[in-house]
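Throughout our pipeline, every protein is held as a single compact record rather than as scattered files. The record that follows is passed on verbatim for readers who wish to inspect the format.
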Amino acid sequence: MNQEVATIFGIVVTPWKIVGWMGVLMFSARWAVQFYASRKQRRVVMPRMFWYLSIIGSLMCLSYFIFGKNDSVGVLSYLFPFAVAVYNLYLDVTHKKRFGEESTISQSLR
């Protein structure tokens, strides 16, 4: 996965770099989702999709930094947000089950 696929504007493209770029895109897109949900609700909300994008983006970036780049700084920078996103998603799901109502988080993207 480290073989060169292409060179674009002097940047060597490998499959691992594509995984890393997609991870950064997912991790960054969560803020667009949060912005949209908050604007729609006219208050600050954290939609469940925010946590899904955080988890997916973190896993993709972790994969890139573990297998593609072998960089401990990159691993540490995405390991903590991954753990927090998993925990917050767990809280949101259990809150909904416990109280039998949709939480403020999951209501935000209707």
About this structure: Strands lie at 6-8, 11-13. Residues 16 and 67 are 8 Å apart (CA to CA). The chain has four helices and two strands. Residues 72-99 form the longest helix (28 residues).
